[in-house]
Amino acid sequence: MRPLGMEGAWLVETQAFGDDRGEFQELFRGGALSDVLGYAPGVAQVNRSVSRRGVVRGVHYADVPPGQAKYVTCVGGSVLDVVVDLRVGSPTYRTWRAVRLDDPRLSVYAEAGLGHAFMALTDDATVVYLTSEEYAPQRERAVHPLDPALGIDWPAGIEPVLSEKDRTAPGLEEMERRGLLPDFGACTTFHQAMRERFAAARHPA
Question: Is the pTM of this model over 0.90?
Answer without folding.
Answer: yes
